[in-house]
Amino acid sequence: MSGDAELDDMGPVDWIVLGWPGRRPDGGELAPMIVDLADRGIIRVLDIAFVAKGDDGSVEALDLDHLGADSPFAVFAGAASGLVDHADLEEAAAAMDPGDSAAILVYENRWAAPLAIALRRSGGLLLADGRIEIQALIAALDALEAASA
Fold this sequence. Notes:
- This protein is α+β, with helices and mostly antiparallel strands.
- It has one domain.
- It is built from six helices and four strands; from the N terminus they run αβαββααβαα.
């Protein structure tokens, strides 16, 4: 399959930054859940990168060797598309506290691929997308409840 044809069959691609206190991301229950989503075809992990922010504010890219063979993220060895670069690590670190670490995950939403394919085949375009953060949803529901009380 050519690169263009493969792109035509893709679903939307998202990224998230997940942070933890300390210099070693703790995937705990999270990493197996990501693997499960990938195994079930719901997502496809395109890239995963790790970053630590020093106490002095310095930014350090972490690889799986830094995390250790016992890391729950070890299963993602080789998941690197080149989509995440050092500028992305710097941007992620800007949201982190000194001494903390994070994982940057880039993934395709395989569940949405049929919708995206149908949109493209009909000549349509995705004009905008976004995400409502849970904190904003809770605040809106609280405001609605307070207004109706």
